[in-house]
Amino acid sequence: MAAKKAEQALVDQWREMLALHARTQCELDRALHQHGLCGSDFEVLDVLSGDCDAFRVQEISERVHLSQSALSRLIARLEKDGLVERGMCAEDRRGVRVTLTDKGRALHGEVLPVQRAVLTKMLTG
């Protein structure tokens, strides 16, 4: 009986985490929509705004938890909007590197406080 209660508590905790994630993602999407972005768009811009000049698509995929194909479509859209640029990887000609443009860096700086405010509201309150 105790094992079954512990198991149910674990399942309940998991479902609470999923619900919190879903609510937070919806709130982020709503707040970022005013700036022409969704939460996944912001996550890619945020990864690219780090110390590294460029990231391979696979490296971005590992950080933003999107499939390779979904990320490729997202990057294509960001590139079309002038927020990122794609180029060949010097070390591996099959690889593609993605960098922020000046426009992408400016937009990231503009929406960073919005994203952080949503996270603060949703995760600390």
UniProtKB/TrEMBL annotation:
The keyword Methyltransferase does not apply. The keyword DNA-binding applies. PROSITE patterns: HTH_MARR_1, HTH_MARR_2. CDD domains: HTH_ARSR. InterPro entries: ArsR-like_HTH, HTH_MarR-typ, MarR/SlyA-like, Tscrpt_reg_MarR-type_CS, WH-like_DNA-bd_sf, WH_DNA-bd_sf. It holds the Pfam family MarR_2. SMART domains: HTH_MARR. Keywords: DNA-binding, Transcription, Transcription regulation. Residues 1-125 form the HTH marR-type domain. This is MarR family transcriptional regulator. It comes from Streptomyces prunicolor.
